[in-house]
Structures are given as structure tokens and as C-alpha cells.
Amino acid sequence: MVEMALIMPIMMSLMFGGVAFGMALSAHATIGKSVRDAARYLGGLPRAAACSSWAIANAKNLAVFGKVNPGQPDPVLISGWKIDGGPNNNVKVNCSNPSIIVVSARAPFRLAMLDSVLFRGPITLSAQHEEERIGD
Known about the structure:
By secondary structure, this protein is of the alpha+beta class. The protein is built from four helices and three strands, in the order H-H-H-E-E-H-E.
């Protein structure tokens, strides 16, 4: 009983930490894939349309919802992620270079128990992808 009382808290914290790390890694991979998909979508459009407001809105929807035209009940790919939700929770498109489109995203990642204990709030995950324009 004494051995179990000493080892069980360590085992539980290692298991919880492993699960939390796996969830964070999965969320980061999802953000990376979403940003890559949005950049590829814009890179395949004709040059005149790639940086229009409707194309950027479609790319942001593709990144956050996984669809160009999401419906009302469609959930976001990562809990709490928004298209334009402030500096730590958004998707940005940069069309300043005529031959390359850059899409970047930031999203908060929350762990129920570890937020307040270890990190003093959510961790911000981010990703960026540059795509050469091939449309035209």
C-alpha cells in the first residue's frame, strides 16, 4: 500500500502529461494542415481573384472549419478557434508579394487542469505556410 501510495501520483501525472502532449501535438498538426490547405486554395486561384475579399474569406473558412462555405451547425476544427478573434486567435492572409501567398494562424489550446496550474492561461499554437501562385 505504501509503495502504491508513493508511485500512483507519479504514474498518474505521467499519463496525464502524455495525453495532454498528444492532444497539443494533434491540435498543432491540425492548424498546420489547415493553413496549408488555405494557402493552396488561394495559390490555385487566378492572380486577379486570389487576394479579393471573397477569396480571403473562403480561405479563412477553409482553415477554421475545413470547408469553404460552412453552415451554421459546422464545428470549428479546434475548440475555441475563430476566424478573426484577436491577436492570439485568428487567421491572416498576406498577399503583398505578387508571386507568393502567405497564410498564418494562431489558436489557443486549453488543457482544463494544466492551464491555471502550469501555464497561467492557454498555450497559443501557431503555423504559417507560403504557397507560390500557380493560377492564371
